[in-house]
Design goal:
globular, alpha+beta, 35% helix, Glutaredoxin, 4-stranded mixed β-sheet, 118 residues
Length: 118
Amino acid sequence: MADYTIWHNPKCSTSRFVLQALQDAGVDLEVRDYLARPPSASELRDALDRLGIAPRALLRRRNTPHDDLGLGDPALSDDALIAAMAQHPALIERPVVFGPQGARLCRPKEAIFDLLAE
């Protein structure tokens, strides 16, 4: 098992920047194209716990089915948001990096350097 895992979207310039920073740091790395291999609801819950954030903080709005699915409704439960992200992985903000010292949603992209410094 790799020391670091990145939930990566190769079409995203921020994700590519973070991946390159990890490769430049020479870390043992697993690259997971989360669109091709989406995380399950259980994996999302684990990720949110490691990130220390609520589901809405991991929810991507731009260029996703966010509005079509009515995910802006503040009454929606965390479980409903997690289920939507599991079913539509484009809703997951990226990139997310998991390392031995913690996890980060690398927005802004420079957040990767904080994780690598820990």
